[in-house]
Design a protein that fits this description.
Elements lengths: L7 H31 L5 H33 L3 H7 L2 H9 L7 H32 L4 H30 L5 H32 L12 H7 L1 H31 L5 H27 L1 H19 L7 H32 L4 H34 L14 H26 L4 H5 L26
Helix pairs in contact: 1-2, 1-6, 1-7, 1-9, 2-5, 2-13, 3-5, 4-5, 4-7, 5-7, 5-12, 5-13, 6-7, 6-10, 6-12, 8-13, 9-10, 9-12, 9-13, 9-14, 10-11, 10-12, 11-12, 11-14, 12-13, 13-14
Length: about 450
Amino acid sequence: MTDVRLPLRALGPFATGSIGMGIWVTVPGLFLLYFLTDVLAVPPLAAGLVILVPNIIDVVLHPWVGRLSDTDLARRGHRRRLMFTGCLVVLAFVALFAVPAGLRGIPAAVWVAVVFVAGNLLYSCYQVPYLATPADLDIGYHERTRLMGYRNVVITIGVLLSGVTAPLLTGDDPGVGDYTLMALILGAAMLVAMVAGITGVTRLKQAAPGTPPEPGHRTGLLVALRDRQFRALTASYLTVAITMNLVLAGMPYFAKYELGRATLTTVLVAAFMAPAVLATPLWVLVARRIGKQRGLLAAQAGFVAGSLVLALGSAAGLPVLIGAVAVLGMAFAAMQLMPLSMVPDVIAASGPGGTARAGSYTGLWTAAEATGGALGPYAYSACLALGGFVASTADEQTTQSPGALAAVRYGFTLVPAALMTVAIMLQRRYTLDNTANTGSSGLGLRDHSMQTVLPGEPSDAT
């Protein structure tokens, strides 16, 4: 069993890399559907397909990228080559919102879809080796939670800042030019953060090098697919990813059509993300006290409760709704931290040579995340279409029917509550944490000498 403590000089840059990832996930997740329907006049179902189809393609590519990452590790001793390639996602991020003048409706949808396919592929080249890093390191059960705790705090800050900054940069009733300026500014921040993340990965590998994999390993995907614990964990996470991406896509609509002011999107994002930042260190302590699985189930139940309160709509009053969104944010922190720190546990328990399969496991995991990114906005767009929502351009004023307004509200609240209930049932099938949290020699899952250090707390390894 290992007692390695990861130094802050490595944890900081590694966590910083997730800011770039957070911008790519958050800004399109929060604004792309709205950008298509309310700026480019793309009908809701077509707009949903623009997000769905590229992400379906992405699902197929992620396991392949995972295999490439494992091959790089075996041949070169690191996964950084793909990460440098992935930094080019910044170009796709800018192009996504820099739609050529005159393109509206279906032609604009085609432009966005093509760029989104390229961007998702480049993003996976960075994301897959980045998230494989914890499994590559010679660290224990609690240190994995500590590592992902740092990462979770920083990515949540990145999501908060980008989610709040983007609406401020675009303003009220923005046009394509406003979105392009926003993409240029946030794209520059993406690039700086992602390069820092590569530095962090290098330092982590120096601090806790794992067992070098043997070249020619070819069983990672099959082992991952046959792993019952991994399947249970991934199925639940897929449902969570669908739910969270639906919520992100629905926020601008809920602010504009239910609360009456589009600018309240910034307030909702802040109310969601700020508690998530503050709650992450507490969830690290919860994981140490009662285990990751129990903490995750409690967070999922809290999310269901908060969604049901939001279903009351504007009649509940803005303070109550903001409080409910804050509950969702605190639950979101656990739903990011716990599963991502459980994946390396599963890999460690999968048998000898787990490091050589980490990219394959992570590729399948990020494929599930990409599926959630596709199905969440599409599910919300389907709700809008069923309610009779009418698309428009930025300079048009469209009055929505009562059915469309009901779809805006309940698609944002009751549908996520139902999906999260399904996620809870799937998550209960995961049982590895019972063994990991009570001690299991030979799996590298238990480390009695480890002290969990929260973000910002001094470490004797620095």
